[in-house]
Design a protein that fits this description.
- Helices cover 50% and strands 13% of the residues.
- By secondary structure, it is of the alpha+beta class.
- Among the domains are: 101 residues, Alpha-Beta Plaits (2-Layer Sandwich), CATH 3.30.70; 36 residues.
- The strands form two sheets. Strands 2-3-1-6 form a four-stranded antiparallel beta sheet. A two-stranded antiparallel ribbon has the order 4-5.
- A hairpin with a 5-residue loop joins strand 4 and strand 5.
- It starts with 7 loop residues before the first helix and ends with a helix.
- The relative contact order is 0.09.
Length: 238
């Protein structure tokens, strides 16, 4: 798909492009470059480059093994420069660090678009901080002398209590806060009531167990007494 004569892929590009007469292709791709080549090395070997507004170098993919090649894309500004570049480097033999030769292939890129360079809009607020009301108030506050700090712990304690009381007075209690506080108090009271009931139940069970043990002990004592009496009666009869 070299630039010499129009190839099938190039004809397809022209067929699919709506602006083929208004915008002829200006972006070319140089294929089959050495795998270890870099953008700096490529620039050095093709220098001087004609006038262009875009260049992109794609390193080789090591996973492709023997089919791994680097490639470069250049968008020229003048059609004559494209022909000149083609005549110089289409079939030009590049040599890698190991001495292997790689004949290059120059052709039109199927995708002719290039990244747009969008100019950033100037910030309307840039350099206007000196006119900002908040900044001016901050400067005025910084220029004021610092308040005298209390010298004794009593004065410090009084200031803390004063601020605490002011916060309490200025505190706004919303219906939601009231509801949450009420629910929290109800849950706390419910937990306390359940704890009291649990302790009462444990005390009742402990008393029942103790009474049962005492009752069993008395019954056992009576039984032992009866058995002893029977044994004595049998012994006296003999």
């Amino acid at each position: 798909m070299a630039i010499k004569g129009r190839s099938h892929s190039e004809n397809r590009f022209y067929t699919n492009s709506k602006d083929k007469n208004k915008h002829p292709p200006t972006k070319v791709v140089i294929r089959r470059l050495p795998p270890d080549m870099t953008l700096e090395t490529f620039r050095d070997q093709v220098a001087p480059l004609p006038e262009h507004d875009h260049i992109r170098f794609v390193p080789a993919d090591p996973g492709l093994a023997q089919h791994a090649f680097s490639r470069a894309y250049i968008n020229f500004l003048h059609m004559d420069d494209i022909v000149t570049f083609r005549d110089r480097f289409d079939g030009y033999v590049f040599v890698d660090k190991q001495g292997f030769e790689f004949p290059a292939l120059v052709e039109f890129a199927l995708y002719q678009r290039t990244p747009r360079r969008r100019a950033r809009k100037p910030d309307a607020k840039s350099g206007t901080i000196a006119d900002d009301a908040g900044y001016q108030a901050f400067l005025q506050e910084c220029e004021q002398p610092p308040e005298a700090s209390p010298t004794t712990w009593e004065e410090t304690l009084e200031q803390i209590e004063k601020r605490h009381s002011e916060l309490k007075e200025n505190q706004v209690i919303t219906p939601l806060v009231t509801f949450v506080c009420r629910r929290r108090a109800e849950r706390k009271e419910e937990r306390r009531r359940k704890e009291i009931e649990r302790r009462k139940e444990e005390t009742r069970k402990a008393k029942e167990k103790l009474s049962k043990e005492k009752r069993e002990a008395r019954e056992k004592g009576r039984h032992d007494t009866k058995e002893s009496s029977k044994l004595r009666g049998v012994g006296g009869g003999r």
